[in-house]
Known about the structure:
The chain is 61% helix and 0% strand. By secondary structure, the protein is mostly helical. The protein has a single domain (4-296), classed as ADP-ribosylation/Crystallin J1 (ADP-ribosylglycohydrolase fold). The chain is globular.
Amino acid sequence: MQTTEELLIERAVAAYLGLAVGDALGATVEFMTPREIIYQYGQHKEIIGGGWLKLPVGSITDDTQMSLALGQSIINTKSISAQSIAEAFNEWMKTNPPDIGLTVRRGLLRYRKTQQPIDLIEDFQCAGNGACMRLLPIALATFEQSSEIIKNANLKHAHITHPNALSDAACYMVIQLIHLGLKGEKNLEDLQRVVNEWLETNPQFEYRKKVCQNPSAFIVETLQAVFQSFFNTTSFEECLIDVVNRGGDADTTGAIAGMIAGAFYGKNAIPINWLEKLNPNISQQCEEQAIKIMQLRQQIVF
């Protein structure tokens, strides 16, 4: 029989694999409209690569790559250090990744010029989803920490590229949902109640009134699509298929939905054919980082 800690680590691994699987699944239909997806695929539900990036089968994009860079920084330093994280992101950008958002690129070029990791000037143009897509290592490292520690830890990675209050609010909500999943909370209604209470002070993210199709990289649209898919389905597979078939910024909606649903439903809920298609090196990195961060979490300096 598994211990509580073993179950916790298993759900952390599921969140990491969910992130990568959602990223790989959504990348195929990124920037397509729902109608274009229907015309080309009927319903997109297999990891087949391709898309506008012409990716090999099982490859991932900047969502997972930046998450892994962030996670490795935490593991290497046993801390949430803005300087270390900024340098990790900078080293990643030096590899000339095929996909990098304009806001991320601008933030990292600012870091190269100033060597100051945190951008202190809030910018509405930074209300994209680039911080939210990569926050999973922060969520794991801050499990069972106070809201103040969680918010400060998130800021140290998010404000390198996305100094924006809407982005901050979204990141905090997604971290809360991941934490509920890690705790073994298996009641969708309870998680939905947490989100709906949060909407009282963050009404911009209201998701219950209008179906969000073709979501852009604007963090509000991203979370609206993710919430609709997560709360209106009852399995990991159904959630991920629903969200990526909305098109738009599908690799990121897939990644964010995947990390939440992975923590909530667990590894056994992730379709085996998706896991088998995922690049094995990426799968290994995801599993290893999830385990290491959870094992180190009591030692991490915030």
